[in-house]
Amino acid sequence: MSLSGLDLNLVLSLRALLEERNVTRAGQRVGLSQPAMSAALARLRRHFDDDLLARVGKQYELTALGRALLDRTSTACDLLERVFSSRADFAPGSEEHEFTLLTSDYALAVFGAELARTVHAEAPGVRLRFQRTPIDVTEDTAPLLSTADGLLMPRGIIGGFPAVDLFTDRWAFLVAETNDEVGDQLTMDDLARLPWVIYQRAYDAPAARQLSMLGVDPRVEISVDSFQALPFLVAGTRRIALVQQRLAELLRGVAAVRLMEPPYGAVPLQEALWWHPVHTHDAAHIWLRETAARVGAELAASEPGRIATVAPRQRARAWHPKPG
């Protein structure tokens, strides 16, 4: 279907109608009278050959197609706004601009804070909005990227979109200081025997896939949507957790845990900034990417070293592991 025969103003009307489910309120939202919005609805119904809004009692409800169009229309409007707000040039020292970055709490702590400090120093009128990466990022990557300026995520989880590498990290394990079931070195038997705390969809990550290839099937006891919560869910228990070494070092001392080397050659983590192709030639976005790459290079210069072996804390009385 050619877009040349379509009135793109109908996209705004469609979004308002689907979200408001009321002709009058939808018209007020986009600045159209009630008769004009009714006419727009009629045109949309002819185009889609569907009622979109069906009267049920005194209210309107979305048809099956209307429900399918709801998210797509919202994404299309966000993308159109980004297309028509693109700039041919960008002066960071004097611009007023906002960038939205999707991120985990890991990337926010390790990289986002450094990026924010650099942006504040070089572009005081630029605002950064960090939002939590949705759990379904791998299923709806394109629509998600179209509504943001970038996604902070390691390589090996998504693909097919432009990206710039930022920094590398190493994987490590967290074990409670009181867990004397684990000696000075973690073993493969420990990984198979002890209960785990994992970050939401750990099995999407190359590190977790590597464990599966090694024959380790983690006995997951807790799943949590926060890397920074892992130390607290390990402390004082028999649990173990796989965590990024840079984050663990930032959190050193916040919980009674030991940081331990994996008992196998864990694949490294390569953090990257991903974006939708619509942003590729936008001047403001080019500046954002270049700044992010520079901050990432500064982080990469401080490569995490191997973890020093630390013996379990000695206690005055015996510790008896308890479930949970």
Keyword list:
disordered C terminus, 324 residues, 12 strands, alpha/beta, five-stranded mixed β-sheet
Through-space gap between termini? 57 Å
- Work out the radius of gyration: 25 Å
Q: In percent terms, what proportion of residues is strand?
A: 15-25%
Q: What is the makeup of the main sheet?
A: 5 strands, mixed
H and E string: HHHEEHEHEHEEEHEHEHEHEEH
Q: Fraction of residues in helices?
A: 25-40%
Walkthrough of the structure:
The chain has 324 residues and is of the alpha/beta class. Helices cover 38% and strands 20% of the residues. It contains eleven helices and twelve strands. It has helices at 9-20, 23-30, 34-48, 64-84, 105-122, 141-146, 188-193, 206-213, 230-234, 245-250, 283-300; strands spanning 53-56, 59-62, 97-103, 126-132, 150-154, 163-169, 171-176, 195-199, 219-224, 240-244, 257-260, 269-274. The strands form three sheets. Strands 4-3-5-12-6 form a five-stranded mixed sheet. Strands 9-8-10-7-11 form a five-stranded mixed sheet. The protein has a two-stranded antiparallel sheet with strand order 1-2. The longest helix is centred in the N-terminal third of the chain and has 21 residues, at 64-84. Mean pLDDT is 87; it is low at 314-324.
Give a quick precis of the structure.
Helices cover 38% and strands 20% of the residues.
Question: What order do the helices and strands come in, and which of them pair?
Answer:
Blueprint: H1 9-20, H2 23-30, H3 34-48, E1 53-56, E2 59-62, H4 64-84, E3 97-103, H5 105-122, E4 126-132, H6 141-146, E5 150-154, E6 163-169, E7 171-176, H7 188-193, E8 195-199, H8 206-213, E9 219-224, H9 230-234, E10 240-244, H10 245-250, E11 257-260, E12 269-274, H11 283-300
Parallel strand pairs: 3-4, 3-5, 8-9, 8-10
Antiparallel strand pairs: 1-2, 5-12, 6-12, 7-10, 7-11
